[in-house]
User: Fold this.
Amino acid sequence: MKKNLISVALFAVLATLAVSCQKDPPTTGGTPGSSTTEMWPTKKISHIVHSVGTFDYLTYDFTWEEDLLKEISCTMYDGTSLGRTVLEYDDRRLTRTYPYDGAGTVYTEGAMHYHYGADGKLKRQTFMLPMRATENLCQQTFDEVVPCELVYSYSDDGHVSTVQANKIKDYGSVETNTYLFEWKGGNVVSVTCDGQPLHSNMQYDDKPNPMRFPMGMETMSITNMIFEGVLGYSVLFLGYAFCWCENNATTLIQGNGQCSYTYDADGFPTSKTITTGGESATYRFNYK
Assistant:
């Protein structure tokens, strides 16, 4: 049975031109979903304005409570809501995320669930992935929901080394992809999937990343469908963010072009501008 999940417009542009991430190195050595607050940046984003040329297209608003991110919402230039993503915690540890669509309908059945080991590190994420049947500029339809999990492994220095993505299909068969992460210091410099390179020779500045959010799976940029169907439209810009990284990526994840930043007195980005194909997109950062 087909299910009309979330209406979207131009989501691929956002993912391609996405924002990068983070702040000071955590005591857990880059572990996503830490049970402490060291993973969250010390300077909190209040909102991000996404402009195409000189046109302010989207605004992302961030709601914080006791130094924990509670919600991200997205609003179009005309005030139309494109939905929000809610984050839930237990003892200050992220346990569940789920989206509302622009009409206010909640999708808790498809929530992302977080599972931790005795050492406090994120071990698994489980969720129901809606499989896309058709799409056009105005809407997408989904005719299947598949149980999925992400299984995390770590190197001796505490960084994520591999993530195994398991998709449970008909009759209990499992489709598996394994992502391998290579680090240089506190930044991911290459990602491969089943031995095939996805991203390589990634470059960073030396400034703190204000979007170092321990949400886990957004670092992998598996597919836009996961972010829209599981985490919601308001976090689509995280798809290529590499949010475990200490610094801000200066190379583009997809396509050719230029990426430049401006910074405040504390070294945090105030804007990120991407120029490609003669067109520019800018993300302006505001802080609490």
In short: The CA atoms of residues 4 and 141 lie 5 Å apart. The longest helix spans residues 224-231.
